[in-house]
Amino acid sequence: MNKLNFLRPNIENLNTYLYSGIFLISIAILDVTLNSFFNTNITSFLPNFISFLLPLIIGTVGLHIIRIEFSGIKNLDLLNKNINTNTFNAVLTLLIIFAVIKSIPPFLSWFIIDATISGDTKEACTGTGACWTYIKIWLNRFIYGMYPNELQWRINLSFIALIALAFVGLIPSEKFKKFLTLYYVVIYPIIAFVLIYYLISGGAFGLEWVETGAWGGLSLTFIVSFFCLIFCFPVGMFLALGRRSELPTVRYISVGFIEFWRGVPLITVLFMSSVMFPMFLPEDFFMDKLVRVIIAISLFEAAYVAEVIRGGLQALPRGQYDAAKSLGMGYWKMHIFVILPQALKLVIPGIANTFLALVKDTPLIFVVGLLEIVGMLNLAKTNPKWLGYAMEGYVFAAIIFWIICYAMSKYSYNLEIKYKTDR
Amino acid sequence: MNFKLNKIIPQLATLLAVILVFGFLTYNAQVNMDNRGIEFGFGFLTQESSFDVQFSLIDYDGSHSYARAYLVGLLNTLLVAFIGIILSTILGVIVGIARLSPNYLIERTAAWYVEFFRNIPLLLQIFFWYFAALRALPLPQDTEPMLGVFFLTIKGLFVPRFVWENLDIFFYSIIAAIISIIVIRNYARKLQENEGKQLPVFYISIGLFIILPLITFLVGGVSLNFSIPELEQMSNTSFKYKGGLGIPPELIALTLALGLYTATFIAECVRAGIQGISKGQKEAAASIGLTPNQILKLVIMPQALRIIIPPTTNQYLNLTKNSSLAAAIAYPDLVLIFAGTALMQTGRAIEIVSITMLTYLSISLSISVLMNWYNKKIAIKEK
Fold this sequence. Notes:
- The complex is a heterodimer of chains A (423) and B (383).
- By secondary structure, chain A is mainly α.
- Chain A folds into two domains: 100 residues; 227 residues, Orthogonal Bundle (MetI-like fold), CATH 1.10.3720.
- Chain A is built from 17 helices and no strands.
- Chain B has 383 residues and is mainly alpha-helical.
- Chain B has eleven helices and seven strands.
- In chain B, strands 1-2-7 form a three-stranded antiparallel sheet.
- Chain B is globular and about 80 Å long.
- The model of chain B has no long low-confidence stretch (mean pLDDT 83).
- Chains A and B meet through helix 3, helix 4, helix 10, helix 11 and helix 15 of A and helix 1, helix 3, helix 4, helix 10 and helix 11 of B.
């Protein structure tokens, strides 16, 4: 490509080349834009194949003749450096631009222009676009599952309370700071459990009993991920310590436990919890489906958390252990006050990734018959009144999950940056 | 004495706790099974399964045993994993390299691809492809063929099937080609070390790989025909393809979702690996006069692969485990056939779930053992 030196601008005749190059590129983009937005083909007089490729060829030539090493014009130099370094890059650049232009009209028309949101029945959806009416009608089910409508304030209330309680940690003065860990690790989970047990599930204080089979939708996704997140962390921490232990029995048991859970897919674990686990319980002992699922997912994710924490423990220099021991600290004191605070700080991104995986794994609980949001979608999809709107449902759920997961990953990234400066 | 007790007591306590828990569970299982009149055992594996499977790589119908059904499921799982791994590797490497492109637009596109597919649950993606995207395809009778021979319909993808004659001779020729390529590579390396001459090994390899099998076509009596799928009307409204190879939509949706999802993780591994090589390496290589291609091939890649391969193998393992989501769209994999249908029919929860878990466990463990061996082999030996 270096030999293609004709039609190359230099600093004297730059303007001529620049104007003709920009002209050619504009024609190319105009052609594609007209084609995609107004469905007209200004090069229709040409044979089909050439007419199709023409904008690409014209655009490439245009980009070629404005390519100059240094022009002194800031924008041109920026353009050349970033998207127009050689012919191959120029073609790729054009292809991406054209693809974006081409995909905007169908996307917009499906999403907004031809979409329907008014009305309450399937008949309202006459357009060729998405039928958001379907989402609107089913939204309540997608969020609360089969939970009775008039009792849904209980779910709302407990979630608001939980969020508010999570922010308690920001309030107290220096005096109470040292209790914060205790609060988040012990007290908060207990409060959460009590709230969900008495408020959402009911059955006491005059509240109506709602069985877990009726829970569902997005709120169930949150409940399951929340509890698994709380339980899997301490278990994972003990497993990680066990795997690093000097005592062979403890070490082998931890290794066996971790490798077992990491080696099997979650779906078989859930199968186990639903069909095999009841066989291992005492005869008259009943354990709720939801509880079994939460235990199963917690143990599963704990193994992953353990591996992540082990990475942090291994990354700490030996000197930290030696220094703590030389101060006369025992095993637990050393770990609680010296090792774990540093190790956990190191593995924040890894733990966040595990939690992200956990949230993305929650739809799997459909195998035991619990319907969180994806399960509810599949149920709504088969409703005879609303056949044929699978696409809208999945797009809706995908957007929700994407926002949750993307926010979480960005947050963990910020945490990582924040704690990196400390060291 | 005191010192020793310190070490023994926690160990004994842990051991005791584990034994107690296991003993408790086993005792309960014993009682429960006695009550229901089930006996623990694997005798059911030889019984007749009496259920059919839609898609099977080996000969199978209801008259075969449960063990055979297990094999069908296992092969189907491995098939999905194999296709998924190839797809995700190709895509992942391309996207990973694109993320390092100097072209801003390409870099952004790749980054958005990764952010997009990574943050949506895999199950949702499988459902999307299977229930929304592939259901929008035309019926067999309305399908326009692609390139004349491929039919992408709501019933799946129908492609021409190879009909071989003397396939074994063709195989031998490929093996011969591979062996001779290895020999030539070694010879070229020796030649370069001793005399500094470079052979165009790459072109010679490609040539050998094409020419040797070609010769078998000309003289070895190997022949290849295609059985092209043809639409056949069974009745007024039902159409069916005859001949060719039908790929069920479940398999397409599953491999597509697995490939697109896992590719994002592999792309990140590739990017991290290439970025992990310090800039000095590239500059040093350039300063001794290597061409950009040689820099990539001889300096960057050998070092980057050392970083890339372990996490990528982990992703392959994840893909294999994730392929169990097949059960959600009724693709007959190990979980659906064995832990689903077979369990329903026999009611032997403990045996079947343990066999299924052990199968996945042994796949995982054997790959990790292989990986540890490989890691030790390629680790930089510091002096």
